[in-house]
Amino acid sequence: xxxxxxxLGLFSFSSxxxxxxxxxxxxxxxxxxxxxxxxVAVHGSEKPxxxxxxxxxxxxxxxxxxxxxxxxxxIHVGGADDVRQxxxxxxxxSGDGDSSTGVNGPTVAVPVEVQVDxxxxxxxxx
Length: 126
What we know:
With 126 residues, the chain is α/β, with parallel strands linked by helices. It contains one helix and five strands.
């Protein structure tokens, strides 16, 4: 009886390993472009801050396993002068379209843009 349970346990464990191994072969990461831009202005100018963020994300066909990541922050605090924040970012990514798993797909683009403009009247008192 103990031998039968032991054999059943080994059989179950070996089945699990076979399934896990086959899943590992199929898993493949797409190419990913991530661009994170933060622009913050805390100022006493009576005009809103001019904040621009121009991002280009380009990919050449199917791609697997490549990444391009950019993070930036522009922070302005204080003063009653006009505020201008400009940012330009360009990403280009390519793959040979030949994946060892046979899985290729479109590039995943993740643009994140945060723009904050806070009026601080106390800056106009100085």
